[in-house]
Specification:
The structure is a homodimer.
Chain A: H1 7-18, H2 23-30, H3 34-43, H4 46-55, H5 58-67, H6 70-77, H7 82-89, H8 95-103, H9 107-116, H10 120-131, H11 137-140, E1 146-149, H12 154-165, E2 174-177, E3 183-187, H13 189-194, H14 201-204, E4 212-213, H15 218-227, E5 232-236, E6 242-247, H16 248-266, H17 279-306, H18 308-313, H19 321-344, H20 352-380, H21 385-415, H22 426-448
């Protein structure tokens, strides 16, 4: 079904490019989808990749650059002057892709590009898109769309659409506006195809539509488009003027990136790392959480040291340190994961008191089951009754405390506008390790004299 | 921007439905998007939700049911006979939604529905869709599409499209087939709008297109549609006959569900749980991983017990048990998370030997940094030199072993066609806890005599 890049082909291509024999491959490569060519460029050496992009035709080159990783794209763009970027690349792209392409350039080079775009309308569109902050609806939108006036008849509409379609790659929706460019609704292609040519647009367009303000958060855009199964959504300003449209493919990227970010945070990786990044990049992404773990481990050592008396009176307490720490960590991560997802999907959280009661219920149930099991296993394996009791009671307490911390830390972070996903993974685990040990040894100490 | 459900409105509605005064709300509710009505039904009591779905007009009710959670939908559908489902619901739906709706019914009721559908074409379409296994392209596709014959002229094409459009809600693409229904390409709306009416289709259609076989995996469909920025993708059989099309909104759901599943597995939750599920459902989703943790904890106790000699010779070794266990767990989860994501995106993994070398490099770098820090911190805090050395050496070893286990377990699982995401989270953590302690005490034991 999909394009597959063979290692032998890549090696052969790399060699031929280095020997100046790219010519023989050009026709085959230009015939591929830009996303596939981008995959090839990504796998080639930097120099060969640069050569390939510069040799294929300009329209393809522009689209390939859009598909590339930001880092690699920036490196290849250094080979182009501002004027070349304007004439060879930007003029072949939709406004949103063009804005993405030049957004990462230096201020100076970006100005040079904008000044060299020949179509003043396109330059204005791109300049406008560059204003919107990252991760807003405005930054995701493109300006290319088809709009018709509510006062037109279907006939005029088809005529005007033919003209507008020259500048639009894909027609997903036809927007209906009034004389002041206020968005009123959409005209379905179905209606256009099945209505008499003399019917006024006003009589056949659909008044109901989901739109989004340019300042809206990208995550909200993704949630809305998913909820209403939208393929394209119009973007308006605060008064309702039609500014542009967001297509679902850009939103799919947002959804995937967010999911990846959450997954990474839960796994203790700070940055977006790929398995083919360099050793140093991967190390940097991992080290912060490891340092938190290290610090937590030292704190845990201090806690146990504090209870050295209990430990020397009942030395086998040391045996169950890993169990207490692991269970606290696991329960904390489970609780926080559920809350983080509820917060992300903006689903109704119910009131916090109810949430608390339910979490206590779940923790109590899990705690009692685990506590009974550990007493049984402990006695069966021949550990002292006092030790088994200490471990079981501590386990119930640790599971309950860990569940509450896992629930509340993300809620509190969210309230202070900090990404609650930060709370999952190593952070919660480390916190629960320390607290769990404190609880364990306190209970052990209390039971010693009995 | 989006619809917001106010608690007061819900309470008021619930009360009015129970008092038989739904009538007053009907008009407002029917005016909402089906996804919004589904949200209301989800929040109401089961009885009120059933009443609401049955009272709104049939077309809306059918769409609302499609938007609902599977469980709730099944409960509400018990109120309908097979004949009612066929006449009131299925006939108002696209084939893919209709297939989803009746897929969960009992065999008997499903047959009753199929036998009662009046349009034999629709019944045949739905019956065909029910054949495809879950999570394949076939199960995701719908049969509604617009297709034209390559031998037609643009004029005839527009005429035929008008007819076909009657049965198609949204027109995303126009497919071009030959006389045997073999898919040849697509006709862009732009071409249709900008070409003379007498041009033969053969001369203007686009030969290049991405299609997918009905047996393909849903995950592959999602990857392909994302890579090529597709809004809709045609589905073909092994010979290339056009069977249907998949729209991106269904794929977005697949992407989100997969991301959620991975996140849950990494967080130690087995099932898809929501924060508003019952205490028992949440407990069931959590307990399996907790039991693994419990078992791991008991194993860890046995390992430490095995080294009781070393522990009584150097009792402060107990202080650093949590540190060793936590670091092993953290490193293991980090390594596995990177591999799991690389496997999921099917990105070129490079050869396994290179991967191994890189992982060893990263682990060594992290290990040495953490080892040096722990020696410094340990000495500063006044722990014995021998203890600091033991902890530091063990830390380097544990980090390296944990990284290798985190890397290899997912690769091995993947090779045996088991979801590698299973390997992340509690599983890797527990394994590394036990191994890490074994390494720690072995090193401690070896250093005792020095």
């Amino acid at each position: 079904m999909s394009f597959e890049l063979k290692p032998e082909y890549l090696e052969n291509l790399e060699e031929d490019i280095q020997n100046g024999k790219l010519e023989a491959h050009l026709e085959t490569i230009e015939d591929l989808h830009p996303a596939d060519i981008a995959e090839i460029v990504d796998q080639l050496s930097l120099d060969s990749g640069k050569t390939l992009v510069q040799e294929i035709n300009e329209e393809k080159a522009a689209e390939v650059l859009v598909e590339l990783d930001e880092d690699l794209r920036a490196k290849i763009l250094t080979e182009y002057s501002g004027q070349e970027i304007a004439h060879e690349l930007v003029e072949n792209l939709d406004s949103d892709d063009a804005a993405d392409l030049i957004n990462e350039l230096s201020d100076e080079k970006r100005r040079e590009v904008l000044n060299n775009i020949e179509d003043p309308g396109q330059a204005k569109d791109i300049a406008e898109l560059l204003i919107y902050p990252e991760n807003t609806a405005g930054a995701l939108m493109g300006k290319e769309l088809i709009k018709v006036n509510k006062n037109w008849k279907v006939m005029q509409c088809v005529k005007e659409m033919r003209q507008q379609a020259e500048n639009v790659e894909h027609v997903h929706a036809i927007y209906v506006v009034d004389d002041h460019n206020i968005l009123l609704g959409t005209l379905s292609l179905k209606k256009l195809l099945t209505t008499s040519l003399k019917t006024p647009i006003e009589e056949v367009y659909n008044h109901k539509l989901q739109s989004v303000e340019a300042s809206a958060d990208a995550e909200d855009v993704a949630n809305t488009m998913q909820k209403y199964d939208l393929v394209v959504m119009p973007v308006v300003d605060a008064i309702g003027h039609l500014l542009g449209r967001i297509t679902i493919d850009d939103v799919v990227d947002v959804i995937r990136e967010e999911a990846k970010e959450d997954y990474n945070l839960a796994s203790g990786l700070t940055d977006e790392v790929e398995s083919d990044d360099s050793i140093w990049v991967i190390t940097k992404a991992r080290l912060p959480w490891l340092l938190i773990g290290l610090f937590g481990g030292i704190m845990a050592a201090r806690v146990i040291g504090h209870f050295e008396g209990a430990l020397s009176a009942l030395p086998k307490m040391a045996f169950f340190i890993p169990l207490i720490a692991a269970m606290g960590g696991n329960v904390g991560v489970q609780s926080s994961a559920i809350v983080v997802q509820a917060l992300a999907s903006k689903s109704v959280m119910g009131n916090v008191a109810n949430r608390l009661l339910k979490e206590i219920g779940v923790a109590l149930l899990n705690g009692v089951i685990c506590g009974v099991l550990i007493i049984g296993a402990g006695l069966f394996l021949g550990y002292e009754v006092k030790l088994c009791l200490t471990v079981a009671i501590a386990l119930v307490a640790v599971i309950m405390v860990a569940a509450l911390i896992g629930t509340f830390v993300p809620i509190i972070l969210d309230r202070y506008k900090i990404d609650p996903a930060l709370a999952t993974g190593p952070f919660i685990t480390t916190m629960n390790d320390i607290l769990g040990l404190f609880i364990y040894f306190t209970i052990g100490y209390a039971l010693l004299d009995i």
